[in-house]
Structure formats: C-alpha cells, structure tokens
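the two lines:
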Amino acid sequence: MLRTALLSSVLFSANAAAAQQVTTYTLDNGMGIVVVEDHRAPVVVHMVWYKAGSADEAEGVSGVAHFLEHLMFKSTDTLVTGEFSSTVAANGGSDNAFTSYDYTAYHQRIAADRLPLMMQMEADRMNNLNLLPDEVDTERQVIIEERAQRTDSDPGALAAEQMRAAQYQNHRYGVPIIGWKHEMEALTLEDARDWYDLYYAPNNATLVVAGDVNPADVLALAETYYGVIPAEPELPERFRPEEPPQRAERRMIFEDERVSQPYLTRSYLAPERDSGAQTEAAALVYLAEILGGSSFTSVLGVKLTFDTQTALYAGASYDADTLDDTAFSLSVVPAEGISLQAAEDAMDAAIADFMTTGVDPVQLERIRAQLRASEIYALDNVAGTANRYGAALSQGLTIADVQDWPAVLQAVTAEDIMAAAATVFNRDQAVTAWVVASREGMIQ
Amino acid sequence: MIRTMFAAVFSFAATMAHAEIAIQQVTSPGGITAWLVEEHSIPFAALEIRIRGGANLDEPGKRGATNLMVALLEEGSGEIDARTFQAQREALAASFGFGVYDDSFSVSAQFLTENRTEALALLRGALVEPRFDADAIERVRAQVQAIIESDALDPNSLSGAAFNAAAFGDHPYGSSLNGTAESVAALTRDDLLAAHRNVLTRDRIYVGAVGDITAAELGVILDDLLGALPAEGPLLPPMVGFGLAGGVTVIDYPGPQAVALFGHEGITRDDPDYFAAFLLNYILGDGGFESRLMQEVREKRGLTYGIGTYLVPKDLSAMVLGSVASANETMAEAIEVIRAEWARLSTDGVTQAELDAAKTFTTGEYPLRFDGNAPIAEILVGMQMIGLPMDYVSNRNDYINAVTLDDVNRVAAELLKPDALHFVVVGQPVGLESTQ
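prediction for all of em together
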C-alpha cells in the first residue's frame, strides 16, 4: 500500500517492567505518537498535545492560547459548531481540552472501537477550523465569564496571579494562562487565527493513545488521519526569554475583603526537570515532601502545628513539570491570634533549623517508599499515564526521561536534597505575599 | 480459630461491552457482607466502606459532631498518637480517606498487597479505637472553624446554605454538616465519642472491594476490620418535604460576578420514573455542551462559563438543582433564560432525536465508569446502598433503552415546575430583587 511508504517508525521503546506497555513512533510529518496499552477495559483515551501554551504567546495577546482552545469546538469545513462534542457524546464518550503555560491538549475518553472516528475529527480540526465573527464574539464573553468565575471571584487566585507576575521578571510564566482581562477583551478573530495557523500542525503535536489498543493499529490509523496533514514549514524554534539574575527579594501585601483567613506564601525561583538531568528536580520533590508534604510528619507541619500552635496549616509545594524555571513554595495559615510576621518568623526558623540539622533518614525512607508505591498505584490509571507522557513531551523531555524518572527519584540521597535546598532558598529570587482582608485588620 | 471458617461466596459475572466484571458477594464468618471484584494484575486493592446515617445522626444541639469526629479518625488510635499513626501509614504507602455526608459516612482505602496486614491493622485502629486526644481535638476544631469562616465568605457556600435553610428548616438537611461556629465550639470529647458510637455501626454498613484480594481473604478482613463496631445505631431522622416556594432570594456580596443556586422538589431514586427523569435531566442541563441550558445560556448568549443541573435524590428528600455563574449585569437575563427553558421543556417536552442522543451517551458512558479499582469499589457500594441487584450492571442499559418519549415527556410535565423554581443569588445582580 502507498500509505506504508509514509510510515516511519523511528522510535520504539517499551517499558518491560510495567503492566502498561508503552510504544512510540514518529510520523514523517513530524507528529510524535505514544501508545500506552492497558487491556483491562475496552476503553481508550485519545489525546493530541500541541507544544504551544500561554507562555508562547506574543506580548499584548495574553489568553489567546486558551481562547483558541475554546474556539476549537466550533465549526470546521465538515463539522458544524458543537458537532465535535455532540458526536463524541452520541458515541458514549466524553471530551474536553486544557491549556497550560507550555501546552494545549484535547482529549476524548470513549469505547476503544470508536478510536478511528476520534482521530478523524481531531485531525480535521487540526487543519480545517472555521472561525466566524459572531461565534468569536460570544466565546470571548464566555472566557471573560470563566476568568470572573475562576480568578476574579477568588481572592486566593488573584493573589497567586500577582505573585507569579512578581516572580517572573522576564518570562511569560508571569502572565496568567487565561489572560489579563483587558487583553482578553481585545482579542480578535485574527489573533486566534494567527495562533492557530502557526502552531496547530503535526510537527508541533504529540498524539497519545492509551487503553485497549494495539500499537500497530494505532500507527496505521494515525497514518491515515494525521499522516496526510502537511507539516508547518514556518513553525518557529521554540523560544522563551530567560529570567535575568534576580537581585532583590519582592514582598507584597494582597488585600481583599473576601479573604476569610489570612495566610502567607513565599515562592522561590527553582529549576525544573531537564532532559537527561533530572536529579536536582527529583531532590526538590523530596524537599517539598520533607518540609511540607504531610501535615503530620513534615518539618513545617510538626514545628508549626504540633510542637507549637503557630499555624492552622503549613505546607510546601514544588512543580517539577515545566519547560522553564519553576517555583518552590512555602505556605502558612497562622493560628488564631498569631500575626503573619510571627508565622513567617516561625517558618523561617524552621527552615533554618532544617538547614543545620539535615534530613531525617527515617522520614527520607518513608517518602522513598511512597514514591515507589505511587508507581504501582499509577498502573491503575491509564489516563494518568497518558497525561504524564503528553505533558513531558510538550515540555522538552523525552520518552527516556519519563521512563527514567521513577528510578531517578529512587536514587535521590540526603546530600542531593540538602544541596538543592541550599541553592533554592535564595531570598533574592523569592516573592513573599501576605494575603489579608484588610491592612488595618492585621494582627500586629 | 473461628476465623478459619470459610467466607460464604455468591458470584455473578456481568459482561459489559467486552469486559467482564465478575462480582462476588462475600459474607464473612461474623456475618458482614461485601461485594468483591478480584483483579490480580496490579498488587494493590481498593476498599470502599459506607455506613448509612452520616451527619443526619448529629444529635440535637450537636451540629458538626459527626464531621469533627470523622476528621479525628486519622488522628491516632489505641496506643499511637496522631503523628505516629500517620508516620506508619506513610511508611506503608497506604491511603485512607474518611468522608462524611448528609446521608452516610465513608471510608476509601487503598493498600499494597505486600503490606496489607499492617495497613489494615492501622485502618482498624482508626475505625474501632480512635483516641480523640485533647490536643488533636483542639487542632482539628480550629481547622473546622477556619472552614466555617471561609464558607461564610464563599459565594457558592453562601447560596447553598441559604437555599438549604429555606428548604429544610430544622431538619439536618437545613444546615451545614460542618456545624456553626457556636455549635462546634461547644462540642466535647463525650460528644465525639457519642457520635462515633452512633455513626460507625454494623447494621447499615456496605462494603465494596476491588483488586488483588481473594474472597477468602476478604471474609477474614471484614471481621477483623469491622467486627468490633456496635451492632446497631440509633434511628435515622424522618423524611422531610421540600419547603421552599418559587421566587428569588438575593444575598449581597461584592465581586464582578454573581452565582445562583436554583431548584425545586425532585424525584426519589426508587421511583419507577427515575430513568426517565435521568434522561430528562441530561437533556436539560447535565449533558455537557449538548444540554439545552448550556446551549441557550452559554453557547448562544455567552452569559456564563458553566451551567448545570442535577437530580439530587437524597435518602430523606429529593431535589432537582442547578447552578450558574454570570456577571452581575447579565444574571437577570440568565435567570430569565433558565426559567423559559424550564417551561419550554415542561410544556413541549423533548424530541425523539434528543432522547436518542441522551440514550446513546448514557448507555455508552456507563461501561467507561468501571475504570480502576477504586471507582469500581465505589460503584459496588453505591449499588448496594440503593438496593440494586448484582445483575444491574448488565441490565442497566436495557432499563435506559426501555424509556419511551412518552415517558420522558410525561415526567417532564410532572417534574419540571418553572413557577416553583427558587433562585438564591449571591452577588450584586443588576435588576434582581428578593421576592416575598
């Protein structure tokens, strides 16, 4: 057959240890394919991930990545508006999409024998989307309502938005995914069209199919539906501005009458998982767990809520999965009668004490065991595995990086963790926010 | 030992689409019944336990006791305090979730095969011998009080609280199961012990287990885990009618957007028309982008990001509810559209094409729910609580397909009452005022 000439299975890799067999291919037009097999139920998850997220937007059109995600459910040359989702529903499936800083993804979950139809429709809207002025106007109102619901109605979300804007001095991670409201209001059909034309192409996309499928069948279908779409010749090299050296700590008080419980958060600029070099990120995963993972056994939990009654809650978090520099965060909700300054001092004292005392080896092994077990539990969630591959491949990692990650995590030592902590806890690269109902009402 | 007696097992194998869900009924030597699906390919199991009653069993003046008691189950048991308990659980990489709802108390546990005995011993301690230490009570009480304060400033919590209070008054459904700042402040350790004795009982317990575990093993586990709980609990509260008439209640709240909770009386789960109502609700407001309300309020007019409706068949009352968020300037229009759609559906009914699409989705989606040990364990428990037989998983789609257009349209006329709809709006909506 002619189509087999297009076929080029460049990569083949399999994780032999896992119940979920993983197979990968690349089409001639540059589209990557990941197939995750799980034959326990006759279900499939079909996802297309575009390596284009809000942090790839140009200045002035914040929110366009997410706006286009909404518009992708409108008409194409062969589907009327709404027909995509109604066809998925009529076949007993569910579908949705999400936009992040580094990617935009579209997915359906459906009976495995409906995979060809899903591919046919998803391939169609990769290349044949129609944007109509009336629909663009209505949908702009919808995304502004979405922002109102998710961000403007939530003081915690507004505070987080302000913190990110202060954390990143040059990188687009400082701009909200949904967009600044004034720029969302000005988004045009042409803005959406430009975004779509440049980034929605097979050489900028990864297909992830997970569930009750045969990899060779998936490849054949992908050739039929996606293989015929030409690569985008103008696709630019992915460029992200780098952060300059950050030389001064930033502090803010965020005031909103809807805040019920004052709290403080500090975020530090931190390294993310890099291809072939994931150890520092792995160490930071442990550091977040050690300092604030469990309310009962973490350093901040014990010192601020058990040894003393300084806080109602104390925690730490770290997102290793980003394309560029990420953040490591600490948060404390003070107990009644405790000022934010006293809570922050207690938090800093606990961290300083940890930096001299070091890692408790028993706690370290407990966390290591949990991370190992999480790989067993993950085998029960094929959609989670699909997400893991789709996100990683959109964030500069390789299949090998994804498959190495559990072993990298298991190999982390106390020394790795303390070295990562010493680097990340740099107040010149940090933003500290106090979130309060009113300055006047703050406990001194 | 008595425990070496074999557990009694009945089984039923349902063929769904192409996958087989083989449900076994296991009765322990001590007489506790569970439904089991063995799935040995991954070395862990999920266990879902529910006990009917939940926060409905709060005693008069003790609102919030069940909630606080349940929050304290993970705070130490027997000889070990909260931190030791959690350190042991973390080392075993087991997860225990304890939930409290109006009608039930739930346990959702997952544990590895390699340390199942230790994990279940720990879980047993939490269920049977919780310590309720004074320092833990105060720490968790403060957390609950923070949630109560936060809810008092959360638009969605505010609308729910006002709606329920107006609909159900003094019945437990009329107030938050968290309790009030005053009722929670007054709770004593004795109140928590009483709540524990009342809520965790064996007479209305339902168990589902899925994963790397055999029927014989499960039988022994059931008696170990639950055998020491009291045999019987107190009477449940009576059924309660829906006491809120049609109208609008506006609660002033700052922000760019208003939220609304709306609804009226609903249909009980055991009503012969339940499947017709289920399909009707899908068409009205539960069908994602396809629903009439999503089409009319979001897709055509851009008045909202999200709108949905839900059948809420509680044990002691039933409602049809919906929720929407819209800018203050457009909430009045959104409400107008919702009322109009409610009336149109009630009067004109649905089309055959809409019903067919609802059936195809509903029947196609059903097997997709069985996608993991924990979700299947939850389904097994849910079926037992409703009183469904094991073969329901095979026949359910036939029940759906048997619903006719006449059924749905008759139910639409009976169930959907546009004049009875009450909207509780939280925000500063333009052109909307509370009705009397």
